[in-house]
Design goal:
The protein is α/β, with parallel strands linked by helices. Helix content is about 35%, strand content about 25%. The strands form 3 sheets. A 6-stranded mixed sheet has the order 5-6-7-3-8-9, with helices on both faces. A 4-stranded antiparallel sheet has the order 11-12-10-13, covered by helices on one side. GO terms for molecular function: ATP binding; ATP hydrolysis activity.
């Protein structure tokens, strides 16, 4: 199904889902567009999984409507099953099958030729392992195999449910590169749930943060940081905190904290360069020793922890 680049592929309108006394998703309206890579973030119990399961057709809303590719699960299940796919935290395979046998098996479910199996193995960089037994694959290779299978039907929508959980940092980063390349090359819409803030920051065009069944805030990373967490962070280690108390008393400082255990001060400022200049002058004039100093832009991790620290109530 060919679609315009800016067309909505998923439309939530006033969607609510309840489980007895628990409202898991509460009056959510959300549009997701063709080719978009979007993250659903939030603390445990925020409603992310329920939202994803309704996209997948595993659950039906109690109120509101969901349209996917202009269709509804109740009437168009066969159509949608051929156009959605997903990658879970862990996928169980038959260990004694070879990689190519496994992909060919799933390709047969979609009536795809074996040439398509070769294409997806190349896409996920597993061609060199095509004759290897599945039981001999590493965790990262198994996830790439799951991704290859998810790509077999050339899906218009892919659900990525914590796809790199348990992988070491190097393998995780390699998986990110593959996912981002697939998103750009195939224009498949990708929906990611993850607890790795760096993962969402690296991969996603738009970020939705959920809490208690609602979408608390959404936008690009720059938009969210500008709205909720303006400024830059200055962190420095100093043994005598009282010697630097004057540094907090200027209009550039937004907030200040000091950890006694690590002897590290953390200051949120409007302008990091200006504060760094003032800090260097101050420590020189007062002969204060600073062991280390870092000036950095705020990250999604900072934003998430800040919202969590405020109990997600603001």
């Amino acid at each position: 199904m060919k679609m315009a680049a800016n067309e909505k592929v998923i439309e939530f309108k006033g969607v609510t889902k309840r489980f007895k006394d628990l409202t898991a998703v509460n009056d959510v309206s959300l549009d997701i567009h063709r080719g978009e890579f979007i993250a659903l973030l939030g603390p445990n119990g925020a409603g992310k999984t329920t939202l994803v399961e309704m996209i997948e057709g595993l659950k039906q809303p109690d109120a509101g409507s969901i349209r996917i590719l202009g269709k509804e699960w109740a009437r168009d299940e066969a159509f949608l099953r051929m156009r959605l796919s997903g990658v879970l935290q862990e996928t169980l395979f038959i260990g004694k099958l070879r990689v190519d046998e496994t992909v060919n098996l799933f390709a047969s479910f979609y009536k795809r030729p074996r040439s398509r199996s070769d294409e997806v193995l190349e896409l996920v960089e597993l061609t060199g392992k095509r004759k290897a037994l599945v039981e001999g694959l590493s965790g990262g290779q198994r996830q790439r195999l799951a991704l290859a299978i998810a790509m077999l039907n050339e899906p218009e929508i892919m659900i990525l449910d914590e796809p790199t959980t348990g992988l070491d940092p190097q393998v995780r980063r390699g998986t990110w590169e593959i996912l981002r390349r697939l998103n750009r090359e195939t224009r498949s819409t990708m929906i990611l749930t993850t607890h790795y803030m760096e993962e969402a920051e690296f991969l996603c065009d738009r970020i939705c943060i959920m809490h208690q069944g609602r979408i608390l805030t959404q936008g690009t990373l720059d938009e969210l940081l500008h709205t909720h967490e303006p400024g830059e962070i200055v962190e420095y280690r100093v043994q005598n905190e009282q010697a630097c108390v004057e540094l907090r008393q200027n209009d550039n400082v937004i907030s200040y904290s000091y950890d006694q255990v690590s002897a590290k001060a953390r200051i949120l400022v409007h302008n990091g360069s200006d504060f760094l200049f003032r800090l260097s002058e101050f420590v020189r004039d007062h002969k204060i020793k600073i062991d280390e100093i870092v000036v950095r832009k705020k990250t999604l991790d900072d934003l998430f922890l800040s919202l969590a620290g405020r109990g997600f109530h603001e």
